[in-house]
Amino acid sequence: MDTRNNVTLCDSHKFKIVKHNVLKFAYMHLAALYGFYLCFTSAKWATVIWGFLLLEGAKLGITAGAHRLWCHRAYKAKMPLQIILLILNSIAFMNTAIYWVRDHRIHHKYTDTDADPHNSRRGFFFSQIGWLFVRKHPQVMEKGKTIYMDDIYSNKLLVFQRKHAIIVIGLWAYIIPLVIPMYLWNESLNNSWHICVMLRHVLTINLIFLVNSIGHRWGNRPFDKSIKPVENVAVSILSTGECFHNYHHVFPFDYKASELRDTVFNAATIFINFFAWVGWAYDLKIIPDKMIIARSQRTGDGKNLWGWGDKDQTEEETKSVQLIYRKK
């Protein structure tokens, strides 16, 4: 049997379907489709714009917040920024930040094995959203107990969100998105619910989870060709900068989650850089160029999207490309 770190890469385990999750997500996706229809038929433009702003904020609550700040500790944030990120994370409603961090740390430690909550070896649908329809694999439960979480459990803000999840997430993910269009510009309850709550929520989940599915399937592997995570610019744009995924799995502590210091294709990095300028984000971690190039030349597939670090490049050519793509 193929194993990694005493964990099977894909066994014959039969998953138990969680029926109420299947019904819940079926309703949400049908409601989201109806919400998309309403965007073009009866909703006010202010409602569509509000829904879009909620969507982008929610994605940042996952990418800049739960992912880069709390999970990977790729930078530090002062309390005002942490509060903003916790609100955005609550809007996203992909469970509590503590739950999300634990699952993501398991994902990195046991990538694409049966201990990975959304193991891409089980197929595109499973890694995209199907893993939410079933009970976790026993290996996920077992290995999850070994994941370091002391830093997260000592964060009073995250503990507060988990302790009062019904109130905090209910307020920011449902009530506020719903009532603002109704009271500020007299939108209907029907439009507000289906666009600003259901459509926004379903898009948040699916756009972020494209990194789990497409991000482990279609693209280049310029830093480590032996692992499944790939580089996919289209998914990176849709997920606010999260699908320079081959790089991220090799260097998970880079605050940009990308080999580029340029903010192109990376809205989360723009967000963090802004708050670094304000002074609320600090200790931003980056990986030295020499280390990135050396790893790319040693274990990459030779298909770097940006043309630096290629094996047949001269030293002068590498320096020239670095100036373009790695500029501060």
UniProtKB/TrEMBL annotation:
Its cofactor is Fe(2+). CDD domains: Delta9-FADS-like. Keywords: Fatty acid biosynthesis, Fatty acid metabolism, Iron, Lipid biosynthesis, Lipid metabolism, Membrane, Metal-binding, Oxidoreductase, Transmembrane, Transmembrane helix. Residues 45-252 form the Fatty acid desaturase domain. The chain crosses the membrane at residues 83-101, 165-185, 263-282. It comes from the Eukaryota. InterPro entries: Acyl-CoA_DS, FA_desaturase_dom, FADS-1_CS. It is found in: Membrane. It is a multi-pass membrane protein. GO terms for biological process: unsaturated fatty acid biosynthetic process. One of its GO terms (cellular component) is endoplasmic reticulum membrane. GO terms for molecular function: iron ion binding; stearoyl-CoA 9-desaturase activity. Belongs to the fatty acid desaturase type 1 family. The histidine box domains are involved in binding the catalytic metal ions. This is Fatty acid desaturase domain-containing protein. It comes from Eumeta variegata (Bagworm moth).
